[in-house]
Structure formats: C-alpha cells, structure tokens
Amino acid sequence: MTTLDAPDTPFAVVDVERLDRNAARLRDRLRQLGVPLRLHVKTAKSVEVADRVQAGGPITVSTLAEAEHFADAGYQDILYAVGIDPHKLPRVAALLRRGVTLTVLLDTVVQAEAVTSFAHKETLHLPALIEIDCDGHRGGVAPTDPALVQIGRALGDNLAGVLTHAGESYFACTPQALRQAAQNERDTAVAAAETLRANGLPFPIVSVGSTPTAHAATDLTGVTEVRAGNYVFFDLVMAGIGVCDVQDLALSVVVTVIGHQHDKNWILTDGGWMATSRDRGTQAQAVDQGYGLVADVHGTLMPDLLMTGASQEHGVLSTRDGKPVPDLPIGTRLRILPNHACATAAQHDHYQVVSGTTVEATWTRHRGW
Amino acid sequence: MTTLDAPDTPFAVVDVERLDRNAARLRDRLRQLGVPLRLHVKTAKSVEVADRVQAGGPITVSTLAEAEHFADAGYQDILYAVGIDPHKLPRVAALLRRGVTLTVLLDTVVQAEAVTSFAHKETLHLPALIEIDCDGHRGGVAPTDPALVQIGRALGDNLAGVLTHAGESYFACTPQALRQAAQNERDTAVAAAETLRANGLPFPIVSVGSTPTAHAATDLTGVTEVRAGNYVFFDLVMAGIGVCDVQDLALSVVVTVIGHQHDKNWILTDGGWMATSRDRGTQAQAVDQGYGLVADVHGTLMPDLLMTGASQEHGVLSTRDGKPVPDLPIGTRLRILPNHACATAAQHDHYQVVSGTTVEATWTRHRGW
User: Fold this and answer.
1) What residues of chain A lie within 8 A of the CB of B277, using their CB?
2) pLDDT tens by residue, B265-276
3) Which residue segment(s) compose the domain that A112 sits in?
4) Quick check: A96 and A126 in contact, CB under 8 A?
5) Considering only Cβ atoms within 10 Å of each terminal Cβ, which end of chain A, N or C, has fewer?
C-alpha cells in the first residue's frame, strides 16, 4: 500500500473523494436545471478525470493538443473554445475526418470567411460557434453588434451556434453578484441567438458557462449546454468568492520541509513556483492567500500558516499574523492548497490519486499545444 | 527551410546568436576574473543549451530529475543546489554509483547528520556544501552562526565546501548596488570558508553566484566557482535592473493574433499564461512590463505595445499610454519577450532555435522532479 510518504516531493495529489463530490454537486444542479454539461478538460487535462466525471461525454478543450489527446481516448464531441487561428484549420480537419465532431469558436468575419472557404475547399462540414461578449472580459461580439449577423451569414451552413463565458464572474464576491453574472450570461447568449434566428440563421447550440455561473444559475431557458471545468478540483480563488469551501479543494501539492530561518519565522520547503505555479489569483481578493494555504500530509489545514514566498524550487511558509510558525522538523511533509487549480495542475505531468492518504492510482496529465 | 511561420502557435523560440553572445560575454568576464563557471541549467533545462555554453562542464541543477537527465547526457560534475531532503538520498547514491560527482547542499545539523549516516551505511563519499546566507534572501546559515562549524563537523569527510547565492541582487537596480551585492556575496562565502578552516575543517569549494552578481563582480579572490544560468536567455527582469539590454533576450514566445476588441484598444492572441507563465516579475520594478513586451515575428520590438492580460490560452495586448494599438490582422504572428525566462521556458517542452528567422533546430527541454 503506497502512501503519500513514498514519492519524492514535490508532487501533485488529487483527493478522489472530493473530486467525486464536486462532480456530483454540479451534475445534480444541472439535472435540476435540465441542461447537459460539456466538461471543460483544461483544468485537469486528464482522461482519467474526465472519465470519472462523465465518461465519453461532450467536452470543451483549450488547445488542439487536448482535442487530439481526448479523441485518442474515445471522446467524440469536442468544442475547441479559443478563437480559431486559421493556420490551425488543417488539424481541425484531421479530427473531423476521424469522425470527431470538433467545433471551433470565432468572433470575426475574417475567421468566419476563412472557415467557410477552408471547409468548401476540403469538402467538410466545419461546425463553428460565434463567441458572444457578455461582460467585457475577453473576446466576443456584443449581441447588439451588427457584426454578429455578418459573421453568421459568412459561416453559412457551418454556423452551429453561439457561446459565451462570464469570465468576470471570477470577480463576483457575493451570492447575488454570482446569480446576476449567471443570469446575464444566459440572457446575453439567448439574446444573440434570437437575433441570429430572427435574421433567418438557424443553429442548434447555445453554450454558456464558467465554474462560478454554473453553480449560481437558477434559470437556463434557451441554453443547450453548460461548460465548466475548474470545479472538478476547485481552488482558493473559487473558495474566496464563495463558490466552494476550502474543504472541497481536491488538488494539492505535497512538499517537504528542508530548512528554517528562525529569526524570520520562516519554514523552507522544496516546493517553489515550479510546483505551485506563479499564480497569485487571491492577491486581488479580500483575503490574500499568498501562494496557498498549508495542510498536513493528511490534508488537515494548519491554522495561520501559508506559503508566502516562492523561488523556482523553494517555498517559504510563514504566518499571516506573525505568530510563531509551528515546529515542523526537516523532512516533514505538507500539502499546499493552490490559488488556481488550472495553473498549479499545469506544472505537473501526473497526479497521485488518494482516497484518505492511500495512493490508489497515478493519473497522467497531457500538455502542450 | 522552416521559418517561424510554420509551427502552430504558441511555441518557444531561442535566438541562437543572442544565446551565443550571452554565453561569450560571461565566459570572457569569468576568464578575466580567473574563476570557472558552473552553469546553472535550471533556466533552459536543455542539454543542447548546456552543450553550446560549456559542453560537459560542471553544472548546477535545481532538481534530481535534471541531475539524472544531464548525467545521461554525459555531464559528470553536478551540484544539486537545493537543500537536501534526506528522503532523496537514495537517488543521490544512485548517481554517485554511476560515477557522477553529485554534490548536495544543506544548512542544518539534522541534514548533515542524515548525510553522514547515509554515506556511512552505503559506504559512499557523499560530498556536501554548506549553504551560507549572504543577504537574508532564502536559506543558509550566517557565517557568524555557531551552527556553521557544527554542521561542518557533522559532515566530517563529506564536507566539500560552502555555497552562497545573492538572491536579493535581483532587486538591486543600480550598477553600484549590483557591485555591492557581488562583493558581499564573495565576502560572505569567503568569511564562512575562513571560519570553517580556522576550526580545522578543510574543503575545496567556495561557490558563489547569480546572474546579476556574476556580471557585476570585480574581485573573486578565494572563490572557486561561479554559478549562473538565467543569463543564457536573460529576460525583462534582468533588463530592468540593467544586467542586460532588451536586445539580449534570447527567449521569446511566438503567438498569433486571434481577435480584437476595438473599443477597449485590445488585441487578443492565442498565447495566454500557459505559454508565458504567470510570472509578473517586473511588477515590482520601476517599469512594469505586464506579461511581456511585444516584437514582430522577426524579433523587432513594437513600440508601446505590451501583453497586459492573460488567461489560460488568451493573451491581451494593449498600449501603455493608451495610444491606439497597431493594426494587426487576424493571423499575424508576434513574439512575447518574457519577464522571467526560467518560468516562461518551463511552460514549454521544446525550443525552436532560430538564426535570424530561419529555424535551424528543435531543442528539447526536460521537466519534472
């Protein structure tokens, strides 16, 4: 029986009971709302995680490398949810020719014309969603922008629907703000869909989602799918806005105490930013968690202790209030609970999967583009 | 002939002429100072880079995975410069038994006793350096700390020397401050060495280094080796403290324009933090470079443009002064010059190696622990 005392540190751990609980929570919510999940696999990038959440179900990917990897594992309905660079269309075509329903995303007439022209030349149906901007967070056209209908027309038969992502919901800090973000995300997507349909452009898909809005939505009328991914692991940023509890965090990084600086009230570990990432997502929140909270190797939080500094392979642990750090001898193993699961997971190629503190499996993580 | 227009973006590029120039610059400096280089390979983690700088020469590593990888490639003199976790000693022993001179680092009596006991049990000579704290940056004992001699005694025949790293030099912003950091680094290491030797403890190695101090030192009397690694690529943090010019940066990330938000004066690219890392190392400097400066695909800087935002696979480019962003159509390729080469390189498994804009080779990068 392998335990978390065996592998050399640092390494990533997934608590499979928490993963299952997080998966079940959203599954139940969406069942009640009557809308299917399209899991975003960019957080875990692991077939084993996706299989556990919804084996073979529709997925969202952030790179074509993910699309190819999950297609190899049997996933057949894949949405590539980053605006398409026309240079990448040959890889999209290769996936379509393998029988995968690979849907692309775009928000300009230039991209729509490139897709239509490429699809025509290759005699392919190349389904594309139009990205709708619901909150000024990143890409997309406003539902009132005349470009929306122009893009729809330029796509012709390749128009598969509309998509929006409430990226600003990551900064919504109250249940009311989260509900409003969810309502706005749904309303904006449906408004864009209605505009296109009113202009004689039919399509099946109205896609919305983010982990915060998926957990806050109360009405998804007109929506055909919800995308979420971070929630399988959750993280301190999500806990900070109240979408989950710290006890729901399924991903952590095991590190070892390698030194002390008593006069500075520091504990040094062998887990630096290479193990946790440089993500400081809680910096802008009400409670800045540094590079993460600290638990013992069994996962029990250590009050007052957090990871306050990071170099490449060194972590600095200290206390928020200047209390003396606990007496943790050289060799003590600890877990760091991350700010941002997507970024921390990306630093690792494997997850040690634990139930309690027994390692039950090693899952692999894909990477690259 | 492959050019930077061929691979799908994002991908990492190394300008080999700049790499060679950076390598020659420090080689010349250290020749004048009469002290050999022990290249830190943690920045590039690439045998091809190390071969280009000093093939087969002494190296520093930040993980045992690096040590094993470079040993496989024929590197025989390796310093693992992170305080040793006793749990990792079996892997150290395996390298020693392969004939590699693998030197470890430590700063406590507990670690020294673990090393001595392990070496005795395994009938190995296990060379160890004592880490000296020269500037309060991270680990190490002060040269005046009575623990220094206790650690030296606990190491017995395994005592191989002392090591210090002027980590605070990354925050030195004037030539004078850099020279002082270098002088202090040297003086502290030599003082510690003298204390140990005065207590009847002999050893051969006095190791100092960081990219800033290696480029600022004027006297290294008593020092036996200089460690530096970042300088092979350099980055915006190093340019910000004046150790290099922006024109020396050898690492960049090629990204593609995938959208525009004209009302926000934004250009969107397919290079997010997965491609650049979350490192915001210039945030604390006089000039905050966001997630990096922007050059055209040939490497010519685009005035006023910088990467100001990042999600996982999206970058946001905008201007510092609110000037309109240049008109860059969908599909335009750009290079992002990174804040921190070590962190950005870590996001990639390969480097496209260019001379001018012709891709001459693909080099691989190692990762993991």
Assistant:
1) 277-278
2) 999 999 999 999
3) 35-231
4) yes
5) N
